[in-house]
Amino acid sequence: MAEGVCIEVEGSIEPSPERVFRYLEYGGSSPAAPVVRKLEGLVPKAHVLVQPKVLYQIRSVDEVVDLCKNDVPAPIQGAPFLAFGLVTVGPAIEEEVEKLRETGRLLDSLILDALGSATVSELCEQTAYRVFRWAEERGSNASRAFEPGSGSSSWPLESQRLIFANLQAEQIGVELTPHLLMRPIKSLSFLMGIGAEIEQASMPFSCQGCKRLGCPYRYEPSASSPYGH
Question: Mapping DSSP to helix (H, G, I), strand (E, B) and coil, where does residue 136 land?
């Protein structure tokens, strides 16, 4: 059994202000009022520039391409199904960020860049919740999402190759460079395990377990409703 979905998202993706503040490196605090006003003024521009697209594939492990022993994170080794996810908001917003930087509008550039990062992060989380629902509808459990190279998952960046081997990334205009970076930059990938013996995650993304406690991007929500997205 397998399910593959490619979605060109309609409507605006609305990341929370707290998520945007995190990408501006304010951690759990709010920026000064002038920065907030500038942020509010740039939100409409971000809505125009982002081109959100989603691709995910849920496969039986027997159908997974290029899967070798210990290729997946320890908590989901033995899962009968694996979910591969890839999301992007396209290249336009990063191109505008660079133009703003080159013309000396550094604050606008930083804020628009944070809006792009927060939007792709929100889109990634929404996609992971789709996997939660897929598993729940079949009376099964789904793990947290593991991102290649993420400090909280301890899953090496080289694992990008496994994800891209099992997704037709060109469907949403994403490519993997020889250095294992994604283009467009505002793209994220992840892997989840599904199965009755897998421990059900309360939320798909969290920095819990990462040793970088002082990281300004740290995300460790206190509560979440897995099926509320």
Answer: helix
User: How many structural domains comprise the chain?
Assistant: 1
95: CB partners within 8 A, 6+ apart: none
Q: What is the pLDDT of residue 18?
A: 87
* 114 within 8 A of 19, measured Cβ to Cβ: no
Domain that holds residue 76: 2-195
Q: Dig out the tokens for 116 from the structure.
A: 């792009």
pTM score of the predicted model: 0.86
List the one residue out of 170, 156, 4 whose CA is nearest residue 88. 170
Burial class (CB in 10 A: 0-12, 13-18, 19+), 146: buried
What are the E-state strand segments in the chain? 2-8, 53-60, 81-88, 141-142, 175-176, 182-183, 187-195
- With a cut of 50, say whether residue 56 has pLDDT above it: yes
Q: Is residue 223 part of a domain?
A: no
CATH number at residue 82: 3.40.109.40
> Phi, psi (5° rounding) for residue 24?
-85, 5
DSSP at 184: S
pLDDT at residue 211, as a whole number: 52
Ordered DSSP codes for 37-79: HHHHHHHHHHHHH---EEEEEEEEGGG-TT--TT-S-GGGTT-
